[in-house]
Amino acid sequence: MKISATGRGETMPVTQPQDCKGNTPNARLIACLQADRRVEIEVTGTR
Fold it and tell me: Start and end of every OmpA-like domain (predicted)?
């Protein structure tokens, strides 16, 4: 069995720059960027 993990961080955001306007951290911007705060787990294996 092999287990590996890769971090992507800012290199693979879900949102596009035009989706979330502004630089000031306010409730609207935080909610818009929420999709980028995620964990994706992919498990593969063979028998």
Answer: 1-47
Do the beta carbons of residue 13 and residue 34 sit within 8 Å?
no
Cβ neighbors of 13 (< 8 A, separation 6 or more) are: 36
Query: What are the residue ranges of helices labelled H in 1-47?
Result: 27-32
Mean pLDDT (10-residue bins), the chain, 47 residues: 74 87 90 87 78
Two tokens at 17? 């720059």
User: Comparing C-alpha atoms, which of 41, 34, 39, 42 is closest to residue 15?
Assistant: 34
Total count of residues recorded for the chain = 47
Model's pTM, two decimal places? 0.59
